[in-house]
Amino acid sequence: MSLFSFFQKRNTAPAARERLQILLAHERTNGEHSDLVNLLREEIIQVIARHVKVDGEKVAVKMDKGDQFSTLEVDIELPADLERKKAA
Amino acid sequence: MSLFSFFQKRNTAPAARERLQILLAHERTNGEHSDLVNLLREEIIQVIARHVKVDGEKVAVKMDKGDQFSTLEVDIELPADLERKKAA
After folding, report:
1. Which member of A34, A68, B40, B85 has the lowest number of beta carbons within 10 Å of its beta carbon?
2. Residues 37 through 66 of chain B touching chain A, CB cutoff 8 Å
3. Which HAMAP family match (chains A, B) (predicted)?
4. Is B12 inside a domain boundary?
């Protein structure tokens, strides 16, 4: 199944809005290093906030931890006019 | 379909290896701002390289641009001992 179809299936938003979705999955071979996804979460959101105006209330973060996988889903609704910031 | 199953289905690697996968999708309402995914790509990989030793040859990057979606897939095979770096 291609990535496009994964996102299109998930997109049930009535009015098409500008959105940015990040999915992060860390597949581990052993129980160690299981906080990598958590570590990356803040910094990835900061990278995005450097390029587009992000409204904290329009950012949904979901984390899951299974035996073998840790996953992070970040779903950001972008402002309609997508105010772009000059790269810092 | 949950995120776990998306990654598990895609994982055909014979021997379980430590892997980090990032999927980024930018859903646009108009043709503008279509380079956001490209802009974020380098910086997100840099964020990861700050936390784990990344072997350039073990990083697969795939970008797709449709009318409404731009997507980025980054697939990183992590070193087995997952040498962790102290955050810079």
Report:
1. B85
2. 39-40, 43-44, 47-48, 50-52, 64, 66
3. MinE
4. no
Pick the closest to residue B20 from B78, B80, B79 (CA basis). B78
Domain membership flag for residue A82: no
CA distance A56 to chain B (A): 18
Instruction: Report the domain count for chain A.
Output: 1
| A21-32 mean pLDDT | 81
pLDDT > 70: percent of chain A: 66
- Is residue B22, in this structure, part of any structural domain at all? yes
In sequence order, which residues have a C-beta less than 8 Å from that of residue A29 and are 6 or more positions away?
A: B16, B17, B18, B80
Chain B nearest-CA residue for A22: B24
Judged by a CB distance cut-off of 8 A, whether residue B6 touches chain A is yes
Closest CA to B6 of A74, A63, A69, A11: A69
Mean pLDDT by 10 residues, chain B (88 residues): 52 66 86 74 89 86 84 86 51
Tell whether B85 is covered by a domain: no
